[in-house]
UniProtKB/TrEMBL annotation:
Coiled-coil region list: none
Enzyme class (EC, first level): transferase
Known EC number: 2.7.7.65
A Pfam family assignment: NMT1
Transmembrane segments: 334-357
NCBIfam families reported in the protein's UniProt record: GGDEF, sensory_box
PAS domain location: 373-434
InterPro entries xrefs: DGC-Regulatory_Protein (IPR052163), GGDEF_dom (IPR000160), Nucleotide_cyclase (IPR029787), PAC (IPR001610), PAS (IPR000014), PAS-assoc_C (IPR000700), PAS-like_dom_sf (IPR035965), PAS_fold (IPR013767)
Name this protein carries in UniProt: Diguanylate cyclase domain-containing protein
């Protein structure tokens, strides 16, 4: 085969054809083999990171050419340090990344998962935050990335210097036992564990002081984003696909977590966590990963106001998208310099043609996107279930409301514009009055998004619960101040939350109160008893002859017997009293108001006689009895623990005297519970 002629002897048309044929190779990107990367989580495996598990399991990372190692965190993990030191390629961080960037650490945020941060502070119910602030030097456990919690404490006039900081153990039992007074946690995690343990607690979110930060931000080092931007984009896009899959297949992903990542967790906890995480993500309002430079700037302004970052700190270098734009501009400039330096007039002409062609393509693409954006906006405002509305803050009248108001509330958009909505004016005033003066004075944070929950009335008289997200802004056409918002029906979510709250405070088998609800009721009843100077009584009851029922008739009959026992006990007490099941066949009854020991013993005897009557269950005639101990408030103790111990002692005295009886606690002689209960008993 003969050699091709040199370029100098080629005809211009041939030269042009050769150049055009080489263009695909000129603009094509390099192909990559599968790349191993690591993701450092900031906590243990849970639904909090469901999107990344889904992206792994569904093969989205593999399709992007990635092999991903997902690493769980610990209470003392610091994902920022791991990423900066090269121990991990990507990490999950809090909005404290603003502080890290301000401190000179080259981190960049690829996108956010949670529109509202789940970080909270927890204290025991007996030790609210304001009391701890007055006492000073409370033992405190804070996670490594707790910048927003420190900001919140500063707003509450609590300096970190006054805290006795301990390493975070990740175990809520440290709070329950009193080892620590303040513990950082997540609204989707620790509250469930405390409710399961029956520990009453206070929860404090930074949002109560206007600190509303992003949460669970995916980030990388700027070394990676500058040198391998395509890798960063590929990882983020695959992760977003994983989150969308996890939101659409919640139960399937919970099964995946239980099987592959956290078999020690319970399904009930993961369902609770999933509900909380979805509320923080707000996927029905914004796309997964959505973030704005303006909100990041507000976060930086909050940190600057508290002296945690320098005043005027610019967040643009923190955001990966801005870095990508600069890289693209540098690439264009380099290409322009290369083309300008070319000596061949024909090549320059071709480059100009290609540039014009691609510019026209971008223009057409931009026009298409604008048309799609307009269409999407019309769909959102006219076809979505949520109601979009605008109110003029001076007249407090609606200036716009989407047609979806009619299926939600029964009123047409025209009716709302003309007559308003019942009760809406008062709710709008409650939202506008606090923030309007500051907004007029130029405080941009006063125009931030606010979320409230309202009970609304449908035109036909029915009631429903709605979530309203709104903010103040200037109308660009007339410069009037408007309140813009979105109203969403959350009636079903409210019912689910009530169901979850009921499950957290009631015995799953009998429906009676559990120890947590009993303790809460005790505190309230004690306050009334102290105020009105009357006595209370606590009954500790254990069933006799219950174990033989389980052994001979089976646990299903035993469970139904326990439910019947709870029904009979409730029939013997008043509505102001409370009955709790605290273990297999053990019950606590609080009589919130009694005259004296005699009246308390009468109620206990009434319960005793009711339980001696035979039970007919599934064809079985069952006969049981009870042993009960009675303790009086304040005579035998002033706390729940003291009264429970006295009543338990009296109950054991009843057991030791042959069971099937009621005994009032007597301080002397003391009778400690036997080491081994009678063999037939409990």
């Amino acid at each position: 085969m003969s050699a091709p002629p040199p370029l100098s002897r080629m005809r211009p048309a041939t030269l042009l054809a050769c150049f055009l044929l080489s263009l695909p190779g000129l603009f094509a990107g390099p192909t990559h083999a599968a790349t191993a990367v690591s993701l450092q989580l900031k906590w243990r495996h849970a639904f909090q990171f469901a999107g990344y598990y889904a992206a792994q399991q569904q093969g989205y990372y593999r399709e992007a050419g990635l092999e991903v190692d997902i690493r769980p965190g610990t209470p003392d993990s610091d994902p920022v340090q791991d990423v900066i030191e090269g121990q991990a390629d990507f990490g999950i961080g809090t909005s404290g990344l603003v502080q890290s960037r301000a401190a000179g650490l080259p981190v960049q945020v690829l996108g956010v998962v949670l529109q509202h941060s789940p970080q909270v502070l927890l204290t025991h119910a007996d030790k609210p935050l304001h009391l701890l602030r007055e006492q000073g030097n409370p033992p405190t456990m804070l996670e490594a990335s707790a910048g927003e919690l420190l900001a919140y404490l500063a707003e509450e006039n609590i300096s970190p210097k006054t805290l006795r900081l301990l390493p975070h153990s990740g175990d809520v039992r440290d709070l329950a036992s009193g080892k620590v007074a303040i513990m950082s946690g997540y609204s989707s995690y620790e509250p469930f564990q405390l409710n399961q343990l029956g520990v009453p607690f206070h929860i404090y979110t930074p949002r109560r002081t206007g600190i509303d930060f992003y949460g669970d931000n995916l980030f990388a080092s700027e070394v990676l984003t500058r040198s391998r931007p395509a890798l960063a984009h590929a990882f983020w896009d695959a992760s977003v696909r994983g989150w969308k899959y996890a939101l659409a297949h919640r139960e399937e992903v919970i099964d995946l977590i239980l099987h592959d990542y956290a078999p020690d967790l319970s399904r009930a906890f993961l369902e609770f966590e999933a509900e909380q995480i979805i509320q923080l993500m707000q996927p029905d309002l914004v796309e997964v990963g959505y973030m704005t430079r303006e909100r990041w700037q507000q976060i930086a302004a909050t940190y600057a106001r508290l002296g945690l970052v320098p005043p005027g700190f610019d967040v643009q270098p923190l955001l990966f998208q801005s870095a990508k734009d600069r890289q693209l501009q540098q690439a264009r400039n380099a290409l322009t310099r290369t083309l300008v330096g070319a000596a061949m007039l024909v090549l320059l002409g071709i480059v100009v043609i290609v540039y014009i062609y691609r510019t026209n393509q971008r223009l057409r693409s931009t026009q298409t996107r604008l048309r799609l954006s307009e269409s999407r906006y019309r769909m959102l405002t006219e076809e979505m279930k949520d109601v979009i509305w605008t109110v003029d803050v001076e007249t407090l009248r609606f200036s716009y409301v989407s047609p979806s108001v009619q299926p939600l509330l029964g009123y047409s958009a025209e009716e709302v514009l003309q007559n308003g909505l019942p009760g809406a004016r008062e709710a709008i005033e409650r939202i506008v009055q606090p923030g309007l003066p500051r907004f007029k004075a130029g405080d941009i944070t006063s125009g931030g998004h606010e979320t409230i929950t309202l009970e609304l009335r449908h035109k036909d008289g029915q009631t429903l619960w709605a979530e309203v997200i709104c903010h103040l802004m200037h109308n660009p056409e007339n410069q009037r101040i408007e309140l813009q918002g979105i109203t969403r029906d959350i009636t079903e979510r409210k019912r689910q939350q009530e169901r979850i709250a009921h499950m957290a405070q009631h015995d799953a088998l009998t429906g009676l109160a559990n120890r947590s609800l009993f303790s809460e009721h005790f505190q309230q009843a004690r306050a009334f008893a102290d105020r009105d100077q009357h006595a209370m009584a606590l009954i500790y009851m254990d069933l006799d002859k219950f174990k033989p029922v389980n052994d001979t008739c089976g646990h299903l009959v035993g469970d139904r017997l326990l439910c019947a026992v709870g029904t009979r006990i409730n029939a013997c007490v008043r509505g102001s009293d409370i009955v709790a099941r605290i273990g297999g066949d053990e019950f606590l009854i609080l009589l919130s108001r009694v005259r004296d020991a005699s009246s308390a013993m009468q109620v206990a005897q009434k319960i005793h006689l009711a339980l001696k009557q035979p039970f007919e269950i599934d064809g079985h005639r069952l006969e049981i009895s009870s042993s009960q101990g009675v303790a009086l408030y304040p005579e035998h103790g002033r706390t729940e623990a003291e009264l429970t111990k006295c009543a338990d002692t009296a109950m054991y005295q009843a057991k030791n005297r042959g069971r099937n009886r009621v005994r009032l606690y007597r301080p002397h002689p003391r009778s400690a519970p036997p080491q081994n209960p009678p063999p037939e008993g409990r």
